[in-house]
Structure formats: structure tokens, C-alpha cells
């Protein structure tokens, strides 16, 4: 065992537990801040007098700015270090969320939401790079799954709190509470995350940045892996963006609290990401990715039913499939990129959030012109393309390093 291997964090150690707690808290904060507005889109449409597609900008705009900023922030982490960049991101996005809750006008609210998305860009790609550098090979699948699980828990909690407050108190109070929880998560991250052992800061030559990004597109597998989050996250967000509009109407006629409670199914995503990440570490990512996407496709079709239990079951199945696929694909990027992993992670996550923004809003046009069947057709097409890519990746020749 050489010196670098001895410094890696192994599963079951105190450092492993501290790292997973810290990054789960960070994932919780980021997803709670970003996605808490999702069950409120019908309320925004009514309160501010905007269309469903326009109301989705409260989610799409911060995701779009986050997607672009990721490409700049990840090189900065090579200079200033992983933990300082992530810590600044968590505190800034939480503070901006609290301020946004106080903004009375639609355009001012959108501007602060956009700034919160910009601030949040310092966490996702840098966290993936941190895990790829610091974790032992046999621990990375589980640790990445726990990070994604923290995302799922944050998304569920943020949506649930927002939905409950929308029925029983001003929705702005719910957003403020979410900002406060995000601040607490930032403090937990600051206290728990161990310092990096395998990271060496180096000055960034900005003229060389395009080349460091471009090298990843010369790999036989990474460009296909980068396409997956755009398609999968875009489709997943479409389901969650517009299912609330459907469930408010007959034959369901649910309240905002009931719709918010449905987001408890995000717990299934927490379990799915962790379990699927562990299975992929054992069986190989190429054998697991396409199966997780197929599960998501089945759930999408289930939401066509007029039976509420079947629709909820479909949302559960979509959530399980999406988070499982995301856990596998994101860890695969971290293992396949042999250098400049923060940049590789930032490309992956930039397309992840760009899919959320662009396709999430495009789904509003599908809903306006085709109702819920239009959304299902749109999302089913996205997942069908993602499945074809996953089957191609299953035939990809691995690099000399095992499992890549």
C-alpha cells in the first residue's frame, strides 16, 4: 500500500461517518433551497398572475444559473480548496433564500432565487470531486449514494414544508424556515467534514481551462455519461413540476398540504440512491444503470392512471429509478475521469441542472398543449433516449483501472 492509498477514507471508519454526515447535510441544504418552490408553482401562478410555464421559472432560473456557474466554480476549487468553496456556497445560498422570502414582487423574488442558484453552484461538483479524491474505491459507491440520498431528503423536506405552510400559513414563512434549516446544515457541514488529505492546491491558468474541460470529451464514455443527467433530471423535474397542477384538479382535487405530503416519496429516493450505489460497486455500473432507467420509465407510465394510489405509486417508482440512475452515473464519472475530476463533475452537474431548467420549463408547454398525457409522452421520450445511451455504455470497454 503506497502513501496515497493509506490516506484514503475507508468504509466503516470514523472519518467515513463524518464525511458522509457532512456531505449528506450539504446535499440536504442544496436541494431544499432549490426545490422547495416546486409545490408552490400553482400558488405562484395564481398570486402573481403568471402561466404555469412562467411560474416554473422560480425553479428553472436558479437551476440555469447554477448550471453555468458550475463550469467556473469547479476550477476555483482547484485554487482555494474543496471545503472552503463548498462552505461559502452553503452559507450564501441559505442567506439568499431567507431574503427571497421577504421580497414582495415576482421579478424581485425571481432575481433572488437566481442568485441563490448561483451561490449553490459551489457545492455539487466540488463534493463529487472531494469524494473521488478522498474515498477508497470500495467506499465511493456508498458515499456517493449517501450524498445523493441527502439531496433526496432535502428535496422532500423542502417541498413538504412549503406545501404545509401554503395551506396553513403564508407561503413566505415556509421559504424562510427552509432558509434557516439550510443555515443549520451549513454549520453541520463546517463542523463535520474532515480536511482533504489528497488535494493539492495549484494556481489556475484560465487560458488552460477550456483544454481541461475538452479532454473529457475525448474519452469514449464520458460524453455519453454527461448526456444522461440532462435527459434524466429534465424528465424527473417535469413530473414533479406539473403533477401538482394535475392533482389540484378533478378527479383528485387534493389540497396543497396533501400534494406536499406526496413528496415524502423522496424517502424512496434516499434509500434507492444508497442501495443502488452499493449494488453498482459490487456488480458494476454498466450492469445497473440501464435497469434503473427502465424502472423510471415504468413509473412514468403509471402516472397516466386516474387512480390516485396508482399515480402515487408511479411517482415512487419514478423517484426510485431516477435517484438510482443518478447515483450510478455520477459515481461512474468520478471513477472514469483520470484527472481534473472537479471539471468532469462540473460538466456532469451543469448538464444535470441545465436539464432541470430547460426541459423542466419545456414540459410546461407539453402540459399546456397536451395535458398530463403530453407530459408523459415528453418525459417518456427523454427516458427512452437515456435508456439507449445506457445500453451503449454497457458495452463500453473499461479503462485499465477496475470498474471504470
UniProtKB/TrEMBL annotation:
It is a multi-pass membrane protein. Its main location: membrane. It is found in: Cell membrane. Gene3D superfamilies: MFS general substrate transporter like domains. InterPro entries: MFS (IPR011701), MFS_dom (IPR020846), MFS_trans_sf (IPR036259), Sugar_transporter_CS (IPR005829). The chain crosses the membrane at residues 21-44, 56-73, 85-104, 110-132, 144-165, 171-190, 222-243, 255-276, 288-305, 311-334, 346-368, 374-394. Keywords: Cell membrane, Membrane, Transmembrane, Transmembrane helix, Transport. The keyword Cell membrane applies. One of its GO terms (cellular component) is plasma membrane. GO terms for molecular function: transmembrane transporter activity. Pfam families: MFS_1. Residues 19-398 form the Major facilitator superfamily (MFS) profile domain. PANTHER family: BLL2771 PROTEIN, INNER MEMBRANE TRANSPORT PROTEIN YNFM. Belongs to the major facilitator superfamily. This is Inner membrane transport protein YnfM. It comes from Methylobacterium dankookense. The gene is ynfM_1.
Amino acid at each position: 500500500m503506497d502513501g496515497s492509498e493509506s490516506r484514503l477514507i475507508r468504509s466503516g471508519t470514523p472519518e467515513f461517518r463524518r464525511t458522509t454526515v457532512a456531505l449528506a447535510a450539504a446535499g440536504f441544504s442544496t436541494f431544499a433551497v432549490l426545490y422547495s418552490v416546486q409545490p408552490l408553482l400553482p400558488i405562484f401562478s395564481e398570486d402573481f398572475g403568471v402561466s404555469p410555464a412562467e411560474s416554473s421559472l422560480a425553479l428553472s432560473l436558479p437551476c440555469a444559473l447554477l448550471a453555468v456557474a458550475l463550469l467556473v466554480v469547479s476550477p476555483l476549487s482547484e485554487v482555494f480548496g474543496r471545503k472552503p468553496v463548498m462552505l461559502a456556497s452553503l452559507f450564501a445560498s441559505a442567506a439568499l433564500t431567507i431574503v427571497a422570502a421577504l421580497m414582495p414582487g415576482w421579478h424581485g423574488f425571481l432575481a433572488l432565487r437566481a442568485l441563490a442558484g448561483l451561490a449553490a453552484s459551489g457545492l455539487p461538483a466540488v463534493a463529487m470531486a472531494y469524494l473521488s479524491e478522498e474515498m477508497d474505491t470500495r467506499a465511493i459507491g456508498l458515499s456517493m449514494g449517501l450524498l445523493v440520498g441527502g439531496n433526496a431528503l432535502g428535496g422532500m423536506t423542502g417541498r413538504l414544508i412549503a406545501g404545509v405552510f401554503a395551506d396553513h400559513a403564508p407561503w413566505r414563512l415556509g421559504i424562510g424556515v427552509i432558509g434557516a434549516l439550510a443555515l443549520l446544515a451549513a454549520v453541520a457541514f463546517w463542523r463535520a467534514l474532515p480536511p482533504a488529505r489528497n488535494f493539492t492546491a495549484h494556481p489556475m491558468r484560465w487560458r488552460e481551462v477550456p483544454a481541461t474541460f475538452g479532454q473529457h470529451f475525448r474519452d469514449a464514455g464520458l460524453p455519453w455519461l454527461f448526456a444522461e443527467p440532462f435527459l434524466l433530471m429534465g424528465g424527473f423535474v417535469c413530473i414533479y413540476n406539473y403533477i401538482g397542477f394535475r392533482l389540484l384538479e378533478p378527479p383528485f382535487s387534493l389540497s396543497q398540504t396533501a400534494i406536499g405530503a406526496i413528496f415524502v416519496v423522496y424517502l424512496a429516493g434516499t434509500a434507492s440512491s444508497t442501495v443502488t450505489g452499493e449494488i453498482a460497486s459490487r456488480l458494476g455500473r454498466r450492469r445497473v444503470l440501464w435497469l434503473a432507467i427502465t424502472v423510471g420509465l415504468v413509473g412514468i407510465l403509471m402516472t397516466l392512471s386516474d387512480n390516485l394510489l396508482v399515480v402515487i405509486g408511479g411517482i415512487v417508482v419514478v423517484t426510485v429509478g431516477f435517484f438510482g440512475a443518478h447515483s450510478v452515473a455520477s459515481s461512474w464519472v468520478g471513477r472514469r475521469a483520470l484527472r481534473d475530476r472537479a471539471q468532469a463533475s462540473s460538466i456532469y452537474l451543469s448538464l444535470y441542472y441545465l436539464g432541470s431548467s430547460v426541459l423542466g420549463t419545456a414540459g410546461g408547454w407539453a402540459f399546456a398543449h397536451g395535458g398530463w398525457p403530453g407530459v408523459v409522452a415528453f418525459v417518456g421520450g427523454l427516458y427512452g433516449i437515456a435508456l439507449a445511451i445506457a445500453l451503449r455504455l454497457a458495452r463500453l470497454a473499461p479503462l485499465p483501472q477496475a470498474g471504470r
